[in-house]
Amino acid sequence: QINEPNLTIPHPELNNRNFLQHLLSLMWVDPWRSKKPIINSFEKSFSLYPRIVGVVNVTKDSFSDGGKFQQPDKAIEQVHKLADEGASIIEIGVQSTRPGAVIQTPEQEYAKLRLILDGVSKLMSEDIIHVSIDTFLPSLAIKLLEKYKISWINDVKGEFDDYTLSAIANAGCKFCFMHS
Q1: C-beta separation of 83 from 123 below 8 A
Q2: What gap in Å lies between CA 80 and CA 154, rounded to an integer?
Q3: Phi–psi pair at 120, nearest 5 degrees
Q4: For the range 70-74, what are the long-range contacts, defined as Cβ-Cβ under 8 Å and sequence gap of 24 or more?
Q5: Are strands 87-93 and 2-4 parallel, antiparallel or unpaired?
Q6: What is the distance between the alpha carbons of residues 126 and 72, in angstroms, rounded to a whole number?
């Protein structure tokens, strides 16, 4: 649990979110447990196979970890720790999206990611983890897909062009886009 002036985890309103109440009800978790099972087409097609996502931010100003994993060796160590603790998806972010952050070039971002990905390549090749890359640089996404078995690209600005989106699809990679 984190209870700081600018960050509270878990979010104080989490229990009031419909998506969470629905999932907890389907899983028969008290006090959301339904009095009788809901039988409908959604429930019949819904399978609960939760996958744990571990986040490794390799920035000095990360709000989630306070910059603990800036050095590639620390980031690699954290990926292994998260995998040992049950994470099957690891999201790696090297570029800060904080307002006013200094933007790294694609070469700088790749240089950091390359060291980390090389350090966890065995976990990736043995399907122990699936890697998601958090970036908003199209050229970086394409370069990573050419060299590594990346499972997800998370476009944190939602601005990739058609060429980049096609390259992601052709690589069989999943795609997530956000708006920062």
Answers
A1: yes
A2: 21
A3: -120, 15
A4: 72/112, 72/115, 72/116, 72/119, 73/119
A5: unpaired
A6: 21
Say how far apart CA 64 and CA 67 lie, in whole Å: 8
Give the chain's largest Cα–Cα span. Answer: 57
Does the pLDDT of residue 180 top 80, yes or no? no
Q: Do 96 and 61 form a contact (C-beta atoms < 8 A)?
A: yes
Q: What is the pLDDT of residues 43-54, one digit of tens each?
A: 544 556 667 899
pLDDT digits (tens, 9 = 90+) for 29-74: 666 555 444 455 445 445 566 678 999 999 887 767 778 898 999 9
**CA 124 → CA 7, 132, 151, distances in Å?**
32, 11, 10
pTM of structure: 0.71
Q: Are strands 7-9 and 152-155 parallel, antiparallel or unpaired?
A: unpaired
Three-state helix/strand/coil letters over the chain: CEEECCEEECCCCHHHCHHHHHHHHHCCCCCCCCCCCCCCHHHHHCCCCCCEEEEEECCCCCCCCCCCCCCHHHHHHHHHHHHHCCEEEEEEECCCCCCCCCCCCHHHHHHHHHHHHHHCHHHHHCCCCEEEEEECCHHHHHHHHHHCCCCEEEECCCCCCHHHHHHHHHCCCEEEECCC
